[in-house]
Known about the structure:
By secondary structure, the protein is mainly beta. The chain contains no helices and eleven strands. The chain has strands spanning 3-7, 10-13, 18-25, 32-39, 46-51, 58-60, 68-73, 78-83, 92-100, 115-116, 120-125. Strands 2, 4, 5, 6, 9, 10 and 11 form a seven-stranded mixed β-sheet that branches. A four-stranded antiparallel β-sheet has the order 1-3-8-7, with no helix packed on it. β7 (68-73) and β8 (78-83) form a beta hairpin. It is globular.
Amino acid sequence: xxxxxxxxxxxxxxxxxxxxxxxxxxxxxxxxxxxxxxxxxxxxxxxxxxxxxxxxxxxxxxxxxxxxxxxxxxxxxxxxxxxxxxxxxxxxxxxxxxxxxxxxxxxxxxxxxxxxxxxxxxxxxx
Length: 126
């Protein structure tokens, strides 16, 4: 079982940046693909980004490509999401998630991730 704790959310003006962190309490962090999802009020949870167990492959949702960057440090059991050029439509609760190594690369479906953090609020003002 993986326990995940997000941090780094907050209020930022449009065009600004934030870096989210996801700390994992697990002995074998490198055995998991990891991902970020977000959920805005009244909307379904949406894929943001994912990273393979080694960090060698990354994937992004269309709305964040070129602005957000996912990374991980397996030595620190931590994943990051660097968010640049933020827009008001990026406002949401951001969740990190862990996927047991069943596939060679991470998937982008929320229902295929096994463990979730509690979420951190990101609010972008116009």
